[in-house]
Predict the structure.
Amino acid sequence: MITLLVVLAVGAGSYLMRSGPILWHGRAQPPPWVDRAALLAATSALAAVVTSAVLHHERAGHPEARLAAIVAVVAALTLSARKVSMLRVIVAGLAVYELASLALATI
């Protein structure tokens, strides 16, 4: 019974969150800080995923993999802070990761 109540509550919350913008469109304007925060939502989500991946990053036989991932994240964060497009940040992060992996493997 409790599981059913939780499923119904999550379903109702999801429905309200998805239908809210449609129902209230044009009736109310969000505060300016909401607009600014919404611009950072994708970057924040990507940063959370990348941070988790880097903290748990291991490749069998490659102890330098974690350090290479950290170097790549620093490079991507630097580009992101300079307002470079997300596609370029991802491509640069991948390139730096591969180059750092190669460089660290030779040491």
Notes: The chain has five helices and no strands. The two ends are 60 Å apart (CA to CA). The mean pLDDT is 82. Helices lie at 2-24, 32-39, 41-55, 65-81, 86-105.
